[in-house]
Each structure stands twice: as C-alpha cells, then as structure tokens.
Design goal:
There is one protein chain. The chain is of the alpha/beta class and 283 residues long. Helices cover 37% and strands 19% of the residues. It has nine helices and nine strands. The radius of gyration is 19 Å and the shape is globular.
Length: 283
C-alpha cells in the first residue's frame, strides 16, 4: 500500500524516545504506528511464548522495583517474584551495591514522568524508571533492562532513550527542584542490567552534549512535521522484528527474539501515564 497523500503530523502530537527511535529506524513505521495508528497482527518474534513470557517478567520486575523504592516491605515484595528469572533478577537487585547506595543516600523519584514543549505545537514526554537525587545534587537517571545479552555501551549511547532522557531532565527538571534549573553536568544516566548486575552502563552529561542533543530533537521533530512521504527503511533486516512487515511486503517470518530485545522495548505511550500529573514546563 502506498503512503497516504498529504498525511500530516497532528499539531498537538506528543513525542517520546520510542516514537523518535521508530522514526530513526524506519520513517514508514513511525507513520503506520503513530499517524495512522494501525494495529497489525504480525508476530514480532519467534518463539512467541518465550518472548511474551520474557516481556511479562520484565514488566513485573519494573513493578517490584517501583514498590521497593517507594518503601514497601522487602519480604512482601519478594513473595511476588514467582518465576526463576524474576527470582534471579530480584536477588541481583537486592544484592546490588549500586542500588543500595542510591536507595540509602538519595531522594528517589520512581516512575517519574516529565514533559517539555518542542517548538510551538508539540511536546516531548518521558517516563523514567527512577530519578535519584544525591546529597551533592547529582541527578542519576536509572533505567532497568532485562536483556538476555548485555549490549555494548557505545550502542546504548546512541539510542534515542539515552539522548532524550538526559536532555529532557535538563529542560523539565525544575519540576523536581521547586524552580531551580538542573545543569547538564549534574546528570548521569545509568542502565542497570538485571542479568549483569555488576556491569551497569553509565553515561555522564555536559552542556555541549545537551545543546547538540536538544538541537537534534528539535530538528528531527521539525523534519517529521514537514514530511509528506514516509519511506521504508533500507535495512530490511530490521523488518523481521516489526509488526508491520507484512503490510509493507517485507516478509512474513519473525526474527529470533533473543536478537531483537532492543527492538521490542515497551513504548512509554503504552504505560499508564496520567498526563495531568506530568512535571512539565510551559510553552
């Protein structure tokens, strides 16, 4: 099927790291998912049951971590780790010196959502697994990853999540500080891997990096809002992990889920976000 003519981005469209990553991976996927809002029943990966089980376990781990960080009793939370994977991840979490140091010495904002305007008609939103503010006013963004294989740090550094989460905290972090700005040099993003608890990936920040990142965000949003045609990616291997591949005549066979974890990260739009409670700076 050909692209619809004169298809334009809605004026009030809310961007996220997931939508920007989709656009970077395949503009056509962005169009189908966010503009046409299609639901296409293609299987993302094989084997389906193992993939679905792993995603459910990942969602459950996020809930356990959130409940622990808001102060629920550890023994009661531990009883909800009902699968071998969850039990291993939970034990790694409880025994992690990194997690322990953050919990005992920082002000914690688990499951925190922030938003900021982009231009005059769009905004950017992110839901953070955890923002921890240390006694020396460092802002540590922590994101839980349940990958079976640990990605390379230089690959994670280039993901839109790394770019968006740090830049947005600069733009909207005053929501956490009663109006005081959060400087880029105060921010660090850490990916904590449940299967590799002693090997977190840390990405510090600085002013120059923030300025480049925010400029890229604004440039990309402007580009998307002006596009008339959204082309398919030339990297056909990505289509094996896309639910729209049959729609685009890019094959019917799903890829191996162990090779596709980064392609299947849950979208922030799919979380239960209360937009009235998002910390946001005004237009």
């Amino acid at each position: 099927m050909e692209n619809k003519a004169n298809l334009k981005l809605p004026m009030n469209f809310t961007f996220s790291q997931s939508s920007l990553q989709d656009y970077a991976d395949c503009p056509r996927r962005f169009q189908l998912r966010y503009m046409e809002q299609l639901s296409w029943p293609a299987v993302e990966t094989e084997p389906v049951i193992e993939n679905e089980k792993h995603q459910q376990e990942g969602n459950q781990f996020h809930r356990l971590a959130q409940q622990y960080l808001i102060g629920l009793p550890e023994d009661k939370i531990s009883k909800m780790a009902l699968t071998p994977n969850l039990q291993d991840w939970w034990e790694n979490f409880l025994n992690s010196k990194f997690i322990g140091a953050i919990k005992n010495g920082s002000v914690l904002y688990p499951e925190m959502s922030l938003a900021a305007p982009i231009g005059s008609s769009h905004r950017l939103v992110a839901k953070y697994d955890l923002i921890a503010v240390s006694p020396d006013h460092r802002y540590i963004i922590v994101d839980w990853k349940t990958y079976q294989k640990r990605p390379k740090d230089n690959w994670m550094a280039l993901r839109w999540q790394t770019l968006v989460y740090r830049a947005l905290l600069v733009r909207a972090g005053s929501h956490l500080t009663h109006g005081s700005p959060v400087e880029p040099s105060q921010i660090e993003m850490v990916y904590w891997y449940t299967n590799y608890p002693s090997e977190p990936a840390a990405f510090p920040y600085n002013k120059a990096r923030f300025e480049r990142d925010w400029d890229l965000i604004e440039t990309t949003v402007k580009e998307i809002s002006e596009l008339q045609s959204f082309e398919m990616t030339t990297e056909a291997k990505k289509c094996r992990f896309c639910v729209f591949r049959s729609y685009c005549d890019r094959g019917t066979q799903a890829g191996d889920w162990l090779q596709a974890e980064a392609e299947m990260e849950p979208d922030p739009e799919h979380f239960d976000i209360n937009f009235e409670q998002i910390g946001e700076i005004a237009f």
